[in-house]
Amino acid sequence: MSGRTSLIVVVGAGLAFAALAFGVMRRSEATTDFRQAAVADQHAAENYNGFIQQVAEHAPEGMKKTVATAWANCARISTKWVGRLPVSSGPSQHELDVCEASAVQLATSRGHDAAASSQYAQRLRAASAAVRAAN
Question: Could you tell me the maximum CA-CA distance found in the chain, to the nearest angstrom?
Answer without folding.
Answer: 96
